Amino acid sequence: MKRERATYLFIVPGLLFFLIFAYLPLAGNVVAFQDYSPYWGIGGSEWVGLENFAAMFNDPQFMRALTNTLVISFLQIVFAFPAPILLALLLNSLISERIKRVVQSIVYLPHFISWVIVIAIWQQVLGGAGPVAELFSAIGIDGVNIMSDPDTFKALVVSQVIWKDIGWGTIIFFAAITSIPNELYEAAAVDGAGSMRRTWHVTLPGLVPVITLLLILTIGNVLTVGFEQLLLQQPAVGSAAAEVLDTFVYYRGIAGGDWGLSTAAGLFKGVIGTILVIAANKFAKRLGTEGLF
Amino acid sequence: MAALLPTATPTRGPDDRRRYPNRPVWMGVPSKPVQAAKAVTIAFIVLVMLYPFVYVIAMSFASREAAASGGLFPTSFSLDAYRSILGGDVVTRAMLVSIGITAVGTTLSMIFTTTLAYGLMRTRDVPGAKFVLVLVLCTMLFGAGIIPNYLLVRSLGMLDSYWSLIIPGLISAFNMVVVRNFFMGLPAELLESARLDGASDLRIFTQIVLPLSKAVLAVIALFYAVGYWNAFFNAMIYLNDTTKWPIQVVLNQYVVQGSALTSIQAPDQPPPPGQTLQMAVIVVATIPILLLYPFAQRYFTKGVLTGAIKG
């Protein structure tokens, strides 16, 4: 018994951390039901019931943030999600291990770079003063600034996500591909299947469990789109194109001081997000994949 | 005679066999157009990935004339931009802040993550440990939200303190699980016999468990270090005092948002072209990651897979 007491010394600091920094702030969400003012604090602010939520759904900016979030999420699922699968298949079909390794180390790299640096680099290359704008003006189209065009911004966001994380995403698909037994390919080849048909009938079915799991988790996260990515670019493209739920919460709350409404928006996002993740996991399990928890 | 043999898959000529000795016979060899298409695709991907880095690095070294003439690549070389930002105090101070946060943060995160992982190893023998583990795992499913976290940090008096960049993210539940899984994979008899010999927990932890776990510790330390180095949002909202800004916030202010560059230049030198200054700040902020990258690449791949495989 004395033994175990020593073990608790290992547990308690970490436990305190999670209680204070993960569970305690959950209680802070009561601000969503208050007309909160920092001067009065949570104890002294007036309770307003669901008023903040009502105001939120009547707020055109919130609805726009919600729409933008869902549209960007949808585009990510359609374009950014399959990208690493295609790249993994392409790299896997290469014969030379050396080229494979070199390409991998190049495509992994942007994953480790912060969003601030990624946006800064993209701005230098694609912005109004960069080489791409210069190429355009060389063929007679002046004033091209891909980085601040609200009309094409959503495509830009998806391209950035693909650029940054396509390589990283391949890792898990690679692992799944290498775990497919070689005999399956051999048997398919003996039956006369060419390389396209082997990919279609052997590789892809082998990837289905991983794809299902990741896809469902991605769908569970539809209300979360790259927060820093959008926050950094909003000044350049304007809020009509670049307002998403997280940036709405930040600008309304921390920057704008509308604490109650912004907390309500955050709570809305958090609750729906948690429900979606749990539901998605249940669904994955029902489909026969392992699920995350 | 050879033409009469049935050929379901493209057969390999002696040429191919010499070129690809490891390639299984059944795989066949793609036709020339397919090979060419693949080569072009790969070349395109590599170009798109690398060109931005190469361009930024090249421009940061561009001389005044080269920067003015533009083009896909500058042609003449100058260190003026680096001399200027490193001679000014904003970028140098921000780099020191970032290095400090990364070093202290990574150290503390490693201590708290590994001790908790060790404490939660024996969920069967230690009453309550299972409950704590579930409590920690649940945090992966939800986040309290931006505002409640901000209010907490403010009420703890950590605004404008460097601790606000470290303490709120001290332990990542995911990393803790990865470390714990690794610890659980260590030979149980070894730990048990040490325990029977009367070794204390602290002794078992520091002298057996940690030394046997160097691989996973390296992965997790790299995860934390890259995270601390790249952190931006917390610094932006928690630090009002601009002299405390880490490099990512400075980079955002002067490069992404385009604030006047006069404050990041060395006061006693003629100012180099603004664009080269911005590029130099990007390069300086990226260098530590590029230095870590060779290790990171090797270990992170393993780390991701360790995490992906349910333990």
Beginning-to-end CA distance, first to last residue of chain A: 32 Å
Question: How many strands, which pairing sense, and closed or not: the largest β-sheet of chain B?
Answer: none
Beta-strand share of residues of chain B:
under 5%
**Distance between the ends of chain B:** 57 Å
Number of helices of chain B: 14
Question: How many domains would you count in the coordinates of chain B?
Answer: 2
Looking at CATH, which topology of the largest domain in chain B would you report? MetI-like fold
Roughly how many Å is the radius of gyration of chain A?
Answer: 24 Å
Reported CATH architecture of chain A = Orthogonal Bundle
Give me the secondary-structure category of chain A: mainly alpha
Q: What is the total number of structural domains of chain A?
A: 1
Largest sheet of chain A: 2 strands, antiparallel
Number of strands of chain A: 2
CATH level 1 name of chain A: Mainly Alpha
CATH superfamily of chain A: MetI-like
Average pLDDT figure of chain A? 90
Mean pLDDT of chain B: 85
Largest interface, with counts of residues having CB < 8 Å to the other chain, equals: A-B, 96 and 100 residues
The rounded Rg of chain B comes to 27 Å
Percent of residues of chain A in helical segments? Answer: over 70%
Low-confidence stretches of chain B: 1-14
Domain ABC transmembrane type-1 (chain B): 95-296
Protein name (chain B): L-arabinose transport system permease protein AraQ
Keywords (chain B): Cell membrane, Membrane, Transmembrane, Transmembrane helix, Transport
Transmembrane segments (chain B): 39-62, 94-119, 131-150, 162-183, 204-226, 277-296
